[in-house]
Design a protein that fits this description.
This protein is of the alpha/beta class. It contains five helices and seven strands; from the N terminus they run E-H-E-H-E-H-E-H-E-H-E-E. The chain has a seven-stranded mixed beta sheet, sandwiched between helices. It is globular. About 30% of the residues are buried.
Length: about 170
């Protein structure tokens, strides 16, 4: 059975590039910013791009793209409210978007999960969001996460990132 990925909060396609490099078929992406979505589409013409608010996306939008396949649901939700560099905090409305990822996990019931974000999501400002997210999926998914330095993976900058992986329990 083929593994297909859906890239949420896709931006211009950095995560999709990595997934494709790993041999994963990215079939759909969601990005609210029209300019970023246009760049994404230029670089990934074979992928269905939904230029829309994640809050208005549902399982039915993806059904034609994920039939008879294993699904990986990928998300890089906005991080500004969790960043230790920014002054945005708990009242940043973008912090709630991690729960839109959770909503789509519940709707789609993907086989695999992948999320990337700033380290502040598991400590400091974002910890209670991450703890709630983790509690809400722990019965359906085994998961692990760690903080990695992007420079250790060939990125030309020292940048600490949270990488979260999950697999559906059977």
């Amino acid at each position: 059975m083929e593994l297909k990925a859906i890239d949420l909060f896709s931006g211009c396609g950095g995560t999709t590039a990595g997934l494709k490099e790993a041999g994963i078929n990215v079939v759909a992406a969601v990005e609210i910013d029209a300019v970023a979505a246009k760049t994404y589409k230029i670089n990934n013409p074979e992928v269905k791009v939904f230029v829309n608010d994640i809050c208005s996306i549902s399982k039915k939008d993806f059904e034609d793209y994920i039939k008879e396949s294993q699904i990986m649901l990928v998300a890089c939700p906005p991080c500004q409210g969790f960043s230790t560099i920014r002054k945005n905090g708990d009242d940043d409305p973008r912090n709630q978007l991690i729960f839109e990822y959770l909503r789509l996990i519940r709707e789609l019931k993907p086989d695999f999960l992948l999320m990337e974000n700033v380290a502040g999501l598991i400590r400091g400002k974002g910890k209670h969001y991450f703890d709630q997210f983790s509690r809400d999926i722990q019965n359906e998914y085994e998961f692990t996460y760690s903080i990695v330095n992007a420079a250790d993976y060939g990125v030309p900058q020292k940048r600490k990132r949270l990488v979260f992986h999950g697999i559906k329990k059977h």
